[in-house]
Amino acid sequence: MAYFVYIVQSEKDGTYYIGHTSNLSERLDRHNSGRSQYTKAKMPWRLVYQEAFDSKGAAMRREREIKAKKVREYIEHLVRTSRA
Question: What is residue 36's predicted lDDT score, i.e. its pLDDT?
Fold first, then answer.
């Protein structure tokens, strides 16, 4: 089973949300249907970045690595150089 690290961007205010999942389409649906408490207020969301991993642990480590940067420029660099 593949796991993904993903970045979605709010079309409402441009903010980013970083997460991991084993099902990207279902997770994006959760963000856009208001079933994710944290992202509910900033709908709609669009997928702007994704990376695939062979294990949940690897995906979680990469998610923490991206979040640890705490720099919007780093996230925007990932988005610009990807093909989400």
Answer: 85
What is the mean predicted confidence (pLDDT) over 18-37? 95
**How many C-beta atoms surround the C-beta of residue 50 within 10 A?**
15
Phi, psi dihedrals of residue 48, rounded to the nearest 5°: -120, -10
Please tell me the distance from the alpha carbon of residue 13 to that of residue 4, in angstroms, as a whole number: 24
| C-alpha to C-alpha distances, 82 to 37, 38, 47, 50, nearest whole angstrom | 27, 25, 11, 8
Q: What are the residue boundaries of the structural domains of the chain, listed by start?
A: 3-80
**pTM above threshold 0.85:** yes
**For residue 44, is the peptide bond before it cis, meaning its omega torsion is within 30 degrees of 0?**
yes
Q: Which fold has domain 3-80?
A: GIY-YIG endonuclease (3.40.1440)
